[in-house]
Amino acid sequence: MITFSELLERDGFDPSKIVVFRHRPMEPELNRNFDWIVAERPDLFDCYQNTHGTRTESALKRANYVASFLRHGPGAALFLGFFKIRGWRDLTSAEWAARPSHVELVRYGMSGASGGASRETISEFDLVETSYLAAWKHRLVIDWPGLERSWYRWADRNTFSVKAIAQADQLAGELPSWDQIALTFDQLAIMPTSWKSALRQWRGIYLITDMSDRMAYVGSAGGSENLLQRWTDYSKSGHGGNKLLKRRDPKNFVFSILQRTSPDLDRAELLRLENSWKVRLLSRAPYGLNEN
Question: Is residue 290 part of a domain?
């Protein structure tokens, strides 16, 4: 069986100049969201992997490339890309924490990697993705031997056997049945493109639950892009123009689907169904978050 280092040598790369990452966020919330962040938000992924603790910094300053992988079950890693290290710049702890992408990652559950708040400077690396093995991105799976907490390694000092090359992208995840979907407010902005395509086709009645007190809002989606259009509106504004939702923190919202309908259902029948759910779930004020 061929190893990852043998692939590198075959194609003219020096494994002694390549650091191999296996990303696995330690923060539970960030770890739950991380596959979608990698797949849908390359700007956030770049921010995540371009600053590190002092030991990793030292290794990167001696390397030419980063081979980036993601945890893919016990003892395995999924290929995310091959990056040229073009250089680095030093940031103060305040500059490091104030980067917009860093702030957004904290919103997704990152607690603050690199111990940056307690350091005088943090090196931010300029990692430029190359086209090397691009056809196997999100498909190539290798072994990750030994202790999993040893998350970065030199390519020449480890044996990473190639386990598989999957036929399909492994990051998006299988779309669940519509009645199994429950997305947090933050997940609306990073859900896989394939999921967005499905929501664009789905017309029906949706539910927003504020998990802080279990108060509920019922709405209907029947515009040109159906559920995707409505949920995108909430993702951008946090409230979709609804007065009672404006008073609440959207970070507590969970979005689900109560009923799917025919894609050509007329507006009057859609509103009738919406009202019937409001009655059954007692979602009108003062018991819920619907004004009418």
Answer: no
Specify whether 111 is located in the same domain as 188. Answer: no
Which of 83, 171, 182, 173 lies closest to 134 in space, CA to CA?
A: 83
Together in a domain, 236 and 202: yes
Q: Which residue ranges of the chain lie beneath pLDDT 70?
A: 112-117
Given the structure tokens 């019922």, which residue do they identify?
A: 218
Q: Which two tokens stand for residue 110?
A: 């990152």
Q: Which residues make Cβ contacts (< 8 Å) with residue 233, sequence separation at least 6? A: 240, 241
Residues 134 and 249 in one domain: no
**Residue 68, domain extent:** 4-165
pLDDT digits (tens, 9 = 90+) for 267-289: 999 999 999 999 999 999 999 99
- CA 246 centroid distance within chain: 26
Handedness of CA 81, 74, 193, 125 (dihedral sign): negative
Two tokens at 264?
């050509």
3-state helix, strand, coil in the chain (%, to 5): 40, 30, 35
